[in-house]
Structure formats: C-alpha cells, structure tokens
Amino acid sequence: MSRAMPDLSAGATSAPVFSLKPIGYVSSPLVDRAHAPKQGNEGSPEAWLVFAPEFQAGLSDLQAADEILVLTWLDRAVRDTLSVHPRDDLTAPLRGVFSTRSQDRPNPVGIHRVRIVAVESPTRIKVLDMEAFDATPIIDVKPVLDRVKER
After folding, report:
1. Domain count within the chain
2. In this structure, are strands 95-96 and 137-143 parallel, antiparallel, or unpaired?
3. Band of the pLDDT at 121, cuts 50, 70, 90?
4. Torsion (CA) 100, 101, 107, 108 in degrees, nearest 10
5. Considering the domain boundaries, does residue 86 fall inside one?
6. Does 5 fall in a domain?
7. pTM for this one?
C-alpha cells in the first residue's frame, strides 16, 4: 500500500513536522564561529559528549579508539540560507547550500566523524575532531562502518 506524498510547497498546512529530542550535548572550548575550525580534522580541540542518563544503555558498547558519527542540531545556524560562499570565502562563487558542508541550512543537522579517546563514565565520552560549539545538542550517534564490521 502506498502513501500519498506530502505537500511540501511553501505555506502548505499538510507539510510534515518532526520532533527531535536531544540525547545529550557537546562540551567544548569552542564558543563562536570566528575561532572554530570548519572541519573536525582542522585543529579541533578535544571535546566531551555528555549524554542524558536515560540513554546510558545505548552507549554501553562504545569504547576508546572507536570512530563514530555524531549527529548534532546546529542550533546557532541561520535557517533560511540556500546559497553560500563555501568555507565563508567571499572570493569563492556562491553555491547551493546542499552541495556544501555549511552549518547554515534549512534543517541544520551536523555530521561529525570523531574518534573516541576515553569513556570517562557511562554517559561522558571524550572525542577528537569535534568542531561543534559548546552546548550543541546531540541528536544521534552511529558507528562508522567503513572500517569496522557491523556488531
């Protein structure tokens, strides 16, 4: 049985609405764009992923040296941006936002490939290569599978 496609046109009253519940937040010394690297492997400081206690069981198999994808909600992003100068370089031609990694976009979901350095407690994990700002909400965590077998 097929479902009717939702009306995604501007002003449509039947457009789907989604609800996301943060599962944690990033604890990082990064607090603003001017001092944050564009990508995690460009000099990001160590950061902590701090999770709400009710998600502890879901974190139980993560360990030091694992690579994970951390999905965040880039809560300080500009939501009506559709064109950007890549990497905020005003000499670069404008590009459609969906062909870039800009944080400014209609649904600002961040994807961060990080390496776990330490698991301090069941809900506090230290990582490398996290370029998200302090207090950025975490919405999901997934394993990197291109180098690790499915568990």
Report:
1. 1
2. unpaired
3. very high
4. -160
5. yes
6. no
7. 0.82
Dist CA 143 CA 147 (whole Å): 10
Q: Domain residues for 111?
A: 24-143
Residue holding tokens 């459609």?
96
Q: For 111-116, what is the mean pLDDT?
A: 94
Residue 150 in domain: no
The answer as to whether 97 is a domain residue is yes
**Distance from CA of residue 118 to its chain's centroid?**
20
CATH code of 137's domain: 2.40.30.70
Contact between 23 and 140 under an 8 Å Cβ cutoff? The reply is: yes
State the Cα–Cα distance between residues 48 and 116, nearest whole angstrom: 9
First to last CA, the chain: 33
Structural tokens at position 132: 């998200």
Give residue-wise pLDDT tens across range 127-145.
Answer: 999 989 899 999 999 999 8
